[in-house]
Amino acid sequence: MEEDETQEEGRNQHQKTITSTLKNKTQAKKEHVEICSAWVKTLTGANIPLSKIDHPLVREFLDSRVWNGVFDSWTQLTETYLPEVYLKEKEN
């Protein structure tokens, strides 16, 4: 009987780990969206074309000094974040 209880405790611990991992992914995705939206707002506010994010020097800088891969390509930023940023700015 003790073995069954030990195995059950092990499964519960494993499930907690998976659950907390999923929560962390969700939080990471939220932060990713916030960062990309802020980046789009910053670039558009400064009249910098979003396509500049794919320039080799800019990409190298971002990859080495900011979280690697946090910023999507300029086409993804344009399609995913620009419309939302535009609508928010238009409301203000």
What attributes does this structure have?
3 helices; Cggbp1; double-stranded DNA binding; mainly alpha; 92 residues; 0% strand; single chain; Membrane progestin receptor beta
Describe the structure.
This protein has 92 residues and is mainly alpha-helical. The protein has one domain. 78% of the residues lie in helices and 0% in strands. It contains 3 helices and no strands. Helix 1 crosses helix 3. It is flat, with a radius of gyration of 20 Å. The N and C termini lie far apart (65 Å).
In summary, what is this structure?
Residues 15-25 have a biased composition (Polar residues). It comes from Platysternon megacephalum. The chain is an all-alpha fold and 92 residues long.
